[in-house]
Amino acid sequence: MENLVYAYLGDAVYELYIREYLINKGFKKVKDLQQEAIKYVSAKAQCEILHILENKNIFTKAELDIIKRGRNSHSHSSKTTDIVTYKESTGFECLIGYLYQNNKERLEDIMKEVISYEGNN
């Protein structure tokens, strides 16, 4: 599968995990869910979470290679963020999509780390 296809899948999987987490956390109103979700799913938040997890040495060498390939893929530009942030978040989504297809147990481990993030975006 191509890296951008993994990123496309990863975007949906990642958002589903975050939405489910927030619903289970007790948010009931869609407006509140959306405001909280942005703290996790925006390109800026994903880029920040990626760097936090990298600094915690969460990723294997193979996972870092997947992130790098996703980050370096040719994609369209973003209207809402700079190109570096957008590419970093694309690399992260690529990993999420890859793990969803190939290693759901590892995906669960990474998503547990992600939901422990309490950003203030």
Describe the secondary structure blueprint for this structure.
Layout: H1 3-25, H2 30-41, H3 43-55, H4 61-72, H5 83-102, H6 104-115
Helix pairs in contact: 1-2, 1-5, 2-3, 3-5, 4-5, 5-6
In a nutshell, what does this entry contain?
This protein is mostly helical and 121 residues long. It has six helices and no strands.
Write up what this structure looks like.
The protein has 121 residues and is mostly helical. It has one domain (3-115): Orthogonal Bundle (Ribonuclease iii, N-terminal Endonuclease Domain, Chain A), CATH 1.10.1520. Helices cover 76% and strands 0% of the residues. The chain is built from six helices and no strands. It has helices at 3-25, 30-41, 43-55, 61-72, 83-102, 104-115.
Features:
single chain; mainly alpha; Ribonuclease iii, N-terminal Endonuclease Domain, Chain A; 0% strand
Which stretches are low in confidence, meaning pLDDT under 50 for 5 or more residues running? none
CATH top level class name: Mainly Alpha
CATH level-four homologous superfamily name: Ribonuclease III domain
| Structural shape | globular
Strand percentage: under 5%
Q: Please tell me how large the radius of gyration is.
A: 14 Å
Order of helices and strands: HHHHHH
Number of domains: 1
